[in-house]
Write a structure and sequence with these properties.
The protein has three helices and eight strands; from the N terminus they run βαβββαβαβββ.
Length: 145
Amino acid sequence: MQFSYKVRSFGDLDPAELYAILRLRNEVFVVEQNCVYQDADNKDIYCHHLMLSDNKQLIAYARLVPPGISYREMSVGRVVTAKDERKKGAGSQLMKLAIDHCRKLCTSKFICSKQDSIRCCSYKDHGYLWYWCCATSLQWSININ
């Protein structure tokens, strides 16, 4: 399936894009997964936002976080795919684009992310290993260059 994408800094997001991002993050993380945390964590303003769309509707999203904001390394966070769009290739495409844009945005050789280990398995195919395992509290990062 073909998807279109945009990468924007926070200041370049228009109100409709920002609303779509927050809505998708809330639909999945708060409603579907019942994750109770402060989503608006003041990090979005420093980040680039990767939006994957199909027919102009946001179906997947990732936050590209510069080094020093969440971790020493550049990181990818708030990775989310709309429930109806899963198993259609959107998540795989999103992660490929996220890694490509991290390489363009940062010269660091490492990238990390904080995600539930159960949801990370499909992303290992891209040479990227998630940073956090919620079940065991293990942490790691992997060279993507």
